C-alpha cells in the first residue's frame, strides 16, 4: 500500500454534497479522537442540535434518483452501485422495524437473495478507502427499509437505494453493536407523588364506610405490580444490624400478596440498589414510601450504542442528532456483543474488567483479558441509571436476549447464563459456566422451546492453568483450535438444564430457526472453529433443539492464513489511521435463516454462503447453494433482512442485495471487473469497491505471516501441538506442508 499517498490524501478530502448545494466539510480536530476520517458538515438551515457527538446532515430527498450512485462508480460518500435495480421503499404498517438488533427477532418473513453474486445491488465502504473504517455489528433496518450501519468512525443512515441521510460520529470507538428502539411511550421515573391511599388515612372512619376490606381493596388498587416507590425521609429500616432500605432508595412493587383472611394484603418490594426484597403490609406502605410518578413521555425512534470510552448514547433515527449520552463507566471493553433496548430500558455491558477476574497471563505485556463486569439498565428516556448488576465472571460477547416475561438473558465468557428482570435488574437465575475458560460465543434463545442455549468451552485440560507458581497461567490454558466446547440448553424460565452436548471445536455462534432441510423442521444451528488462526478448521452442526441430537454436520472452510480475511491486507492503513488494526471477528457470523428455510452465513475466510435444500436432490441435509467471495471476513452479526432487501456487513463494507425473485432481467448490471476505478480521484487513491476477491479458505492464497509484520500483539502465542493436550488438533497441512511454518 502506498501509505504516503493515502496519508497525503487525508488533507485533500473534499466531500461535495451530492447534487446541488455545497456542504462544508472539515476534518475533525485531532482532539476528537482523530482516529479516522469522517465527513461532517453544517447544513445551511442550521437545523440539527448537536450535543457532543457530531452529526452531519445530508438533506436529500429519497425519491430523487439523481442522488443515486452511478453504476460501477464509487460516489463521494463511498457508495458503489452494481446494477440499476431500484429497491422498494416500503412502510411497514405495524410500526415494527425489519431488523432492530442482531439477536432478537420476533418473526422472519423475508426472503434472502438466492443467487448471492447476481443479486448484489450496491455496496458501501469508507469513502477514503476500503480499510479506513471497520463496521460494527450487522446492518439495521427500520420500518421503511432504511439501512443503518455502525462503524468505527461513524454511524450512517442510508435509504434502501444507498442515498445517505446522516452520519453521526460518536464519542469514541463503538464498543458493541448498536440497536434500534421503536418510538413509544416510556415510563420516566422522576417526580415523587403521594399515594391515593394516604388520603384515606386521614379521613374519619365513617367516611370510609368502616369497611376494612374496601380499604384494603382501595389500597390494592393503589399499589400495582410494576409501580415504583421511594423511601420517605426518616423511614430507613434496619433489622438485626442490616439495613433493608434507606432514605431515597427506589424499588419496584414486584407482587401483591393477599392475606389469608383476604384483608391486610402485603406488597413485595424489590429494591433497585440492593436487589433485596421486602414484604410490607399495604397499610404501612404509605407511611414509609412515596410513589414515584409514572410520567409517560413519548420517545422518538432511536438508535442506542456504547463506546469504549464508557459512553452509552441514543440518537434520533430521523435526524441523527444525539438525544442523550451517559458516561456509564470509565471504559467499556470491545468491540464485541451488542446493546439492546426493550420497554424503555437500554441494557448494556459496561465497566471494563481490570481486577483479578481478568488478570491472566502475568508474564505478558498486557495481562488483562478484555471483558466487562457490569450489566446496566438505563432509562431510554434520558440515559439515567435504573439498575446495575455485577456478573460472576466478566462478559466478552454480551448480547441481551429478551426472554420470557420481563427477563433479559445473556452469558459471560465462561458460558454461564444469567437471567435478570430487565425492569429491576433482579437476578432470576444464574447457571452453568466452566471456571477458567473463555469463549467468543454468545447465548441464543428460542421462544418456541422456551430454551436458552449457552455456548462455551470445556475446562482446559492442558494444565498450566495454575496462577500461583511462576510464571503463572500460560497461554496453553486458553481456547485454541481443537479446544472442546459445549452447547448447553436451559429452561429459560427456571434455568434448569435440559440437555448438553460436547463439540470438537470451540463454538462460534448459533441460531434457532425453521430450515427447509427437512422442510420447516426447527434446527439449532451451531457453528464452531477457532477464529483468525492459521490452520483453524470449522464446522456447522444442525441439532434438534428439543434434545440436542445431531441431525447433520457440514465441514466449513479451514483458514489458511494467520489472520481473518482482510485483516493483514488492511493492517497498514488501519494503523496509519490510528484506529483498530484488526477486525478479528468470530470464525462464523451468526447464522440467519430466511422465510424459505435457507440458511445464510458468513465466515472468516471471506465467503458468504447460502445453504438450503437442493431441489434436484433427495437429501434432507442442507447443501451449499450459493457463495459470494469477498476476501474479507464477516462481522459476528453480519446479516439482516428487510422486505425485498438483504444487507450484510463484512470487516470493511456494507453489501446490499435485492431479494425479489421476480426482478426484471431488463435491469442492467456490470460485472465487477468491467468498470474502471473512480473517475475523479478526489481522494488521491483509487481503491474501487472490490467485492470479489480471493477467499482465504484456499491454502494457495497469500498472505502468510511475514517477518516484518508489526502487530501490537498482546494475544498469547501458542502452538497447541506442543502440549499434545488438544489431542484432536494437529496442524497438518492438507495441501502443502511448508505453508504452515508459523
Ligand atoms: C409473510 O409475507 C407474506 C407476503 O408478504 C404474507 O402473505 C404472509 O401473511 C406473511 N406471513 C406472516 C406470518 O406474517
Ligand atoms: C364491604 O365492602 C365490600 C366490597 O365493597 C362489600 O361487598 C361488603 O358488603 C362491605 N361490607 C360492609 C360491612 O359494608
Ligand atoms: C511467559 O512464560 C513462558 C514460560 O516461562 C514463556 O514461554 C513465554 O515466552 C513467556 N512470555 C512472555 C511474553 O514473556
Ligand atoms: C420450565 O420451567 C418452568 C418453570 O419452572 C416450568 O413451568 C416449565 O414446565 C419448564 N419447561 C420445560 C420444558 O421443562
Automatic annotation (TrEMBL):
Residues 685-742 are annotated as: Disordered. The keyword Signal applies. Residues 685-696, 732-742 have a biased composition (Basic and acidic residues). Gene3D superfamilies: YVTN repeat-like/Quinoprotein amine dehydrogenase (2.130.10.10). InterPro entries: PQQ_b-propeller_rpt, PQQ_rpt_dom, Quinoprotein_ADH-like_sf, WD40/YVTN_repeat-like_dom_sf. Residues 1-22 form the signal peptide. Keywords: Signal. This is Pyrrolo-quinoline quinone repeat domain-containing protein.
Amino acid at each position: 500500500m502506498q501509505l504516503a499517498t493515502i496519508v497525503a490524501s487525508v488533507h485533500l478530502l473534499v466531500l461535495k454534497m451530492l447534487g446541488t448545494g455545497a456542504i462544508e466539510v472539515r476534518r475533525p480536530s485531532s482532539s476528537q479522537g482523530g482516529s479516522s476520517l469522517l465527513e461532517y458538515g453544517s447544513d445551511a438551515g442550521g437545523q440539527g442540535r448537536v450535543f457532543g457527538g457530531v452529526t452531519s446532515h445530508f438533506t436529500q430527498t429519497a425519491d430523487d434518483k439523481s442522488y443515486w450512485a452511478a453504476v460501477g462508480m464509487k460516489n463521494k460518500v463511498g457508495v458503489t452501485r452494481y446494477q440499476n435495480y431500484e429497491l422498494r421503499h416500503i412502510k411497514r404498517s405495524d410500526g415494527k422495524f425489519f431488523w432492530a438488533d442482531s439477536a432478537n427477532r420476533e418473526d422472519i418473513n423475508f426472503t434472502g437473495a438466492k443467487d448471492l453474486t447476481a443479486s448484489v445491488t450496491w455496496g458501501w465502504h469508507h469513502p477514503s478507502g476500503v480499510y479506513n473504517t471497520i463496521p460494527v455489528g450487522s446492518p439495521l433496518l427500520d420500518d421503511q427499509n432504511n439501512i443503518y450501519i455502525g462503524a468505527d468512525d461513524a454511524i450512517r443512515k442510508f435509504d434502501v437505494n444507498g442515498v445517505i441521510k446522516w452520519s453521526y460520529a460518536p464519542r469514541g470507538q463503538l464498543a458493541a453493536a448498536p440497536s434500534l428502539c421503536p418510538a413509544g411511550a416510556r415510563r420516566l421515573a422522576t417526580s415523587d407523588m403521594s399515594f391515593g391511599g394516604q388520603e384515606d388515612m386521614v379521613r374519619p372512619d365513617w367516611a370510609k364506610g368502616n369497611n376494612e376490606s374496601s380499604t384494603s381493596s382501595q389500597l390494592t388498587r393503589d399499589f400495582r405490580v410494576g409501580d415504583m416507590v421511594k423511601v420517605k425521609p426518616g423511614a430507613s429500616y434496619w433489622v438485626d444490624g442490616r439495613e433493608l432500605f434507606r432514605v431515597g432508595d427506589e424499588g419496584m412493587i414486584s407482587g401483591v400478596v393477599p392475606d389469608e383472611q383476604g384483608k391486610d394484603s402485603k406488597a413485595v418490594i424489590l429494591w433497585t440498589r440492593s436487589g433485596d426484597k421486602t414484604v410490607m403490609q399495604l397499610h404501612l406502605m404509605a407511611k414509609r414510601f412515596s410513589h414515584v410518578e409514572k410520567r409517560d413521555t413519548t420517545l422518538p425512534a432511536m438508535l442506542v450504542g456504547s463506546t469504549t470510552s464508557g459512553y452509552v448514547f441514543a440518537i434520533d433515527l430521523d435526524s441523527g442528532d444525539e438525544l442523550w449520552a451517559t458516561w456509564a463507566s470509565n471504559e467499556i471493553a470491545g468491540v464485541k456483543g451488542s446493546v439492546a433496548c426493550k420497554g424503555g430500558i437500554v441494557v448494556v455491558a459496561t465497566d471494563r474488567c481490570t481486577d483479578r477476574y481478568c488478570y491472566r497471563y502475568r508474564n505478558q505485556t498486557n495481562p488483562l483479558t478484555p471483558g466487562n463486569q457490569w450489566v446496566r439498565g438505563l432509562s431510554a428516556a434520558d440515559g439515567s441509571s435504573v439498575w446495575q448488576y455485577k456478573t460472576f465472571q466478566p462478559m466478552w460477547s454480551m448480547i441481551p436476549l429478551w426472554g420470557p416475561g420481563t427477563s433479559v438473558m445473556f452469558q459471560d465468557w465462561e458460558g454461564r447464563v444469567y437471567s435478570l428482570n430487565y425492569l429491576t435488574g433482579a437476578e432470576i437465575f444464574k447457571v452453568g459456566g466452566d471456571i477458567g475458560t473463555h469463549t467468543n460465543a454468545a447465548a441464543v434463545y428460542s421462544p418456541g422451546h422456551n430454551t436458552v442455549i449457552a455456548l462455551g468451552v470445556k475446562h482446559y485440560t492442558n494444565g498450566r492453568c495454575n496462577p500461583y507458581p511462576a510464571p503463572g497461567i500460560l497461554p496453553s490454558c486458553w481456547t485454541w483450535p481443537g479446544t472442546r466446547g459445549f452447547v448447553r440448553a436451559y429452561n429459560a424460565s427456571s434455568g434448569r438444564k435440559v440437555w448438553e452436548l460436547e463439540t470438537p471445536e470451540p463454538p462460534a455462534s448459533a441460531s434457532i430457526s425453521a430450515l427447509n432441510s427437512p422442510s420447516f423442521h426447527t434446527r439449532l444451528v451451531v457453528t464452531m472453529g477457532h477464529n483468525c488462526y492459521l490452520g483453524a478448521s470449522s464446522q456447522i452442526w444442525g441439532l434438534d433443539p428439543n434434545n440436542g441430537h445431531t441431525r447433520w454436520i457440514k465441514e466449513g472452510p479451514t483458514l489458511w492464513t494467520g489472520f481473518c480475511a482482510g485483516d493483514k491486507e488492511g493492517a497498514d492503513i488501519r494503523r496509519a489511521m490510528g484506529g483498530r488494526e484488526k477486525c478479528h471477528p468470530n470464525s462464523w457470523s451468526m447464522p440467519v435463516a430466511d422465510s424459505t428455510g435457507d440458511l445464510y452465513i458468513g465466515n472468516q475466510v471471506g465467503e458468504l454462503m447460502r445453504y438450503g435444500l437442493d431441489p434436484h436432490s433427495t437429501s434432507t441435509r442442507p447443501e451449499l447453494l450459493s457463495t459470494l467471495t469477498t476476501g474479507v471476513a464477516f462481522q459476528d452479526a453480519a446479516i439482516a433482512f428487510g422486505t425485498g432487501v438483504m444487507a450484510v456487513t463484512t470487516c470493511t463494507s456494507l453489501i446490499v442485495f435485492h431479494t425479489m425473485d421476480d426482478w426484471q432481467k431488463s435491469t442492467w448490471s456490470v460485472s465487477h471487473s468491467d468498470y474502471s476505478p473512480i473517475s475523479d480521484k478526489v481522494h488521491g487513491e483509487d481503491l474501487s469497491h472490490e467485492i470479489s476477491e480471493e477467499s482465504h479458505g484456499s491454502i494457495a492464497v497469500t498472505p502468510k505471516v511475514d517477518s516484518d509484520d508489526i502487530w501490537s500483539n498482546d494475544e498469547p502465542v501458542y502452538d497447541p501441538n506442543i502440549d499434545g493436550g488438544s489431542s484432536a488438533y494437529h496442524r497438518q497441512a492438507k495441501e502443502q506442508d511448508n505453508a504452515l511454518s508459523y
